[in-house]
Amino acid sequence: MRSLPRWVLLPALLGALFVLLPLVAMATRVQWGSFAELITSESSLQALRLSLQTSATSALACVILGVPLALLLARTSFPGLSLLRSLVLIPLVLPPVVGGIALLYTVGRQGLLGQQLELLGIQITFSTTAVVIAQTFVALPFLVISLEGALRTAGTRYEIAAASLGARPSRVLATITLPLVLPALLSGTVLSFARALGEFGATITFAGSLQGTTRTLPLEIYLQRESDPQAAVALSFVLMIVAVLIIAVARRRVTA
To answer: The pTM is what?
Structure first.
């Protein structure tokens, strides 16, 4: 603390208040007497269950797709690498609604791939699969950027040493590379899960809002905001608590 300039304290406290005050204000608006009743309606429980299931699936998809992608970006060099990195990170800055429209024109009924899928009897839009695709689209960059940075920081000296001793690339990856960046992988996975859990724009654009099928908790909150504001506040508080618990548990594991 003594090594920091004193002026740092004031903007740091303002930054903390900027984040915390809205959360505290929301907590003060919750009707605690009817809290349990508000969050245990059939539609609310269905939305929460669907959000947790789809977010977990999306986080798994991010790991399956994101780990090889991060390895490619961090461990290879080829013409167009910078362009590829920029394209991969586009969902970070792209409005989610635009992402939903892009997905709609990709695998929708009249989309680039959707027409071929329709011929095979496969319809993705307005299904739970569409929710997972939308969540994965917006969450994947969080894992890629976390893991790529860790891979670059870790360097390649241990990998080179293992390869020089005769270890095959797959063994080097499994026993050297991934264990070195495991904290970043866990952190990126949690960030992806949290981002998927809060996804709204791409989901409602691409998957719609069908109760029990595509209506995740953020969509349920949005609908309840008009018909039952107190239920919307209660569900928002639940979503906030779930997100805090996820981040706290993940941070504890990463630190350990």
So the answer is: 0.90
